[in-house]
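Sequence in, structure out.
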Amino acid sequence: MLSSLVRASHEFVGVADLEGNALFVNEAGLKLVGLADLDAVRSTRIIDYFAAEDRDRVLSEAMPAARDNGFWEGELKFRNFATGEAIPVLYNIFPVRGSSDAIVAYGTVTRNLSESKLADERSHWLGSIVESSDDAVVSKNLDGIIASWNKGAERVFGYTAAEAIGRPITIVIPDDRQNEEVEILSRIRRGERIDHFETIRRRKDGTLFPISLTVSPVKNAEGRIIGASKIARDVSEQRQSREQIATLAREVEHRGKNLLASVQAIVNLSRSDTMQGLKDAIEGRIQALANVQSLFVESRWVGAELSAIAARELAPYDAADKKRVRIEGPSTLLEPTAAQAVAVTLHELATNAAKYGSLSVPEGQLDLTWWRGTGGEIILRWAELGGPAVQTPGRRGFGSRVIKQMTAQLHGKAEFDWRPEGLICEMTVQA
């Protein structure tokens, strides 16, 4: 019976004589050390079974202890004869006495530690991962009582592990969502997994926040469901980002519609005596809109600074000494609709001045100034000097129609004073 148990054991069992010669190794032992059969065993010495770094310890510590004290146990490394692999083992050695020939030998019982150490390491790694996770990782029994609570849970919910463990998980669930826990536990008992369930939870200080939950059944060694593990992630930032993206999308849609409406108005208002003139007029006005769009991007679509709009529209006409065009006014941020209207208006005035007014001759000058009126409105004054003598036009030109239409969209007005020394245009816009 005992012989059968030794041979069937899953652990290494071996016998050696006092000279250190191996006499017997069971089947599990043969596999562990890479030997084919007992003939191979009998051609080895017990010391050959150990990795080189452990042999001195076997001779100086293990065997003397077994002889003098009747037992020695410790961790050593076996050497696999076939592969040379070092295998960690828990090694027991003790003296045994034969019944017929009275030969005293050393018996050994050895447990392979490779798998158990690997399991311990895996368990340690998993424990470290759970403990260092930014997410809350929590386990609970089937009654909803908290069994474990990692550092992430402490950060997310505000309760320490000592405060949470042993209490019901409902301490983090708002009163109006208590039924969710009943449903979760019911599904866990059925062996179901719950993935990325977004809901609301409550911190220790009472604040509510959005959270994404993944809940899985926990089973014991027999496969019976005994509880649940829960990973909870605070998704406040993600939800805020989604809301910001949705808001931005709506804003882009709104701005796009406004821009297209402005382009449509420009096309409808544009006139010319020739096809090329019409093409040039439309292209110039659309380019003015494009210029102001880039300013919107810089401000994240808040608007555009009036001085920047003016500088872009008038830059092609300014001389190298920067004395031909004077731009002056307080810092004024125009919202997008007003900025687009002012950009097109300045483009029209500059185009007219370059063809017929002060910007058509080298010595001509231009003053653009603005200020806020008593009612908060913006008053812009365009004054040309030093150009050809000006005469009041017999009919309203296409450019003046565009200007009046654009300012009217802002509930403002535009007045033209065709003085002989140069045009003065004063515009009032609500911004």
